[in-house]
């Protein structure tokens, strides 16, 4: 740094949790978009000590923050906590995309593991921080607090809920079976279902109201997938009590019974393996969309060629491109039902190419999916989620930083 006089520059002092740091004001102002480089830092100025006070920040991590202003290179501590580091970056207004190449991969891996662990934590559905009346919440909390903190009671409630859902699904399956040649179980044993349906209606209605009451945001829960499934499950039972409804309308409304089987997915998340699979698919949703787009594009291409190859054959089954599209899908997925087969030599050759293309296209995402699933599964096992254990030190959600695109040094 060139020689400065007092009138040219000002040396600023930062007190970070008792540790003092000094920096030239002109150096900090090279990054005006950040906290230290802008005017926002004046809110932390102590007029009595002449220092900028950051009592809640980590002095060890602040060294890396200050080094960024001096060298224009942002580094990541080799043994630091990525959650604390991300929080420091957020507080001082520094984007993680600016992490230097030498440290970026290390930060990305640790941040990815942290995000994985945070996703696998059980959602706090019994949090009492919503907008409903505090007295009502506290009364409910007093009743449930012992059960929530007691692992045995929690397991009993969980398995009891699974039992009710499984019983409802079994009843839904049984009522569709043919008891005799002219009657189904629903018609022959109507008195049994007349007792079972009100019972499940009461159970699931009470569960739904309890979830709405204890949700952090009642409106958000009602609009969520879980809330919609619960509501339609209740409606599917209520519709059984309706009389004088048109048969067509009743047959349409009976489709709500599908949601009874979907409700079991809520309790399937108790298994950390199922939750790992869910988070794997949600994480790779973008890649799966591209995969489906690629399959559709290749299928349409092969279907069009098949149609023009086979349409000249007498009594050809390839009478349209959509029918050929069905054949390409079956061939690419190696199912091969045999309902459609090519008759011409060029069609048979193309069918072989289509099958090979399908194998290659389907195998590409398998490695990515398996790797992602294994990462979630190992993280869940390491955290003890398979035993239903929580982590007191992880009660707060980590700073959620998505994987940013790298900014080349030439563009900084």
From TrEMBL:
Residues 385-412 are annotated as: Disordered. Residues 10-110 form the BTB domain. One of its GO terms (cellular component) is voltage-gated potassium channel complex. SMART domains: BTB. The chain crosses the membrane at residues 156-177, 189-209, 221-242, 288-309, 321-337, 349-373. It comes from the Eukaryota. It is found in: Membrane. GO terms for biological process: action potential; potassium ion transmembrane transport; protein homooligomerization. This is Potassium voltage-gated channel protein Shal-like. It comes from Branchiostoma floridae (Florida lancelet). The gene is LOC118430021.
């Amino acid at each position: 740094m060139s020689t400065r006089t007092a009138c040219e520059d000002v040396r600023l002092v930062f007190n970070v949790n008792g540790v003092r740091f000094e920096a030239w004001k002109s150096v900090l102002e090279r990054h005006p978009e950040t906290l230290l480089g802008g005017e926002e830092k004046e809110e932390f100025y102590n007029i009595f000590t002449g220092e900028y006070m950051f009592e809640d920040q980590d002095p060890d991590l602040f060294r890396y923050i200050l080094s960024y202003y001096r060298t224009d290179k942002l580094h990541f501590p080799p043994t630091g906590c990525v959650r604390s580091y991300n929080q420091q970056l957020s507080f001082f207004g520094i984007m993680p995309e600016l992490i230097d190449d030498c440290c970026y991969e290390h930060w990305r891996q640790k941040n990815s593991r942290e995000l994985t662990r945070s996703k696998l934590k059980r959602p706090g559905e019994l949090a009492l921080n919503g907008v409903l009346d505090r007295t009502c919440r506290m009364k409910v909390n007093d009743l449930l607090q012992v059960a929530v903190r007691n692992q045995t009671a929690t397991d009993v409630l969980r398995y009891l809920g699974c039992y009710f859902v499984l019983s409802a699904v079994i009843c839904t399956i049984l009522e569709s079976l043919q008891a005799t040649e002219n009657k189904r179980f629903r018609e022959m044993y109507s008195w049994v279902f007349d007792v079972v349906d009100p019972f499940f209606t009461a159970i699931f209605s009470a569960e739904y109201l309890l979830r709405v009451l204890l949700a952090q945001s009642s409106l958000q829960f009602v609009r969520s997938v879980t809330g919609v499934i619960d509501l339609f499950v209740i409606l599917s039972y209520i519709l059984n009590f309706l009389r004088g409804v048109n048969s067509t309308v009743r047959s349409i409304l009976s489709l709500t019974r599908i949601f009874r089987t979907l409700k079991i997915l809520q309790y399937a998340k108790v298994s950390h393996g199922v939750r790992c699979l869910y988070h794997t698919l949600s994480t790779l949703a973008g890649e799966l969309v591209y995969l489906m787009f690629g399959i559709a594009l290749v299928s349409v291409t092969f279907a069009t060629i098949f149609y023009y190859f086979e349409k000249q054959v007498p009594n050809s089954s390839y009478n349209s491109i959509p029918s050929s599209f069905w054949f390409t899908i079956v061939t690419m997925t190696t199912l091969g039902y045999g309902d459609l087969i090519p008759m011409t030599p060029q069609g048979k050759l193309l069918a072989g190419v289509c099958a090979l293309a399908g194998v290659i296209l389907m195998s590409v995402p398998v490695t990515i999916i398996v790797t992602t699933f294994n990462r979630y599964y190992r993280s869940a096992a390491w955290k003890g989620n398979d035993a239903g254990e929580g982590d007191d030190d992880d009660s707060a959600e980590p700073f959620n930083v998505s994987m940013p695109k790298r900014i080349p040094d030439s563009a900084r």
